[in-house]
Amino acid sequence: MQWLQRLPWTVLIVGTLTLGLAPFVPEPHLLEKLRMLFQGELIRPIDIFDLLLHGAFPVLLLGRVIVALKRP
């Protein structure tokens, strides 16, 4: 997990706020794609790619937080 610890906090936070929440209106893509996933409508490859693209930074930020909390 050293590669995760080397990721700068600012990059992860800015990436999460911009790419994770874009577009801001009418609904962020990440929320839309998660809703589609839970409703069983996430079947097109472009939608799956979109979920991975918009969800990458929030997942990395969450991992970085977990690693930081476990570290003595």
Automatic annotation (TrEMBL):
TM spans (from-to): 7-26, 46-67
The entry's keywords: Membrane, Transmembrane, Transmembrane helix
Top-rank taxon, per record: Bacteria
Protein name: RND transporter
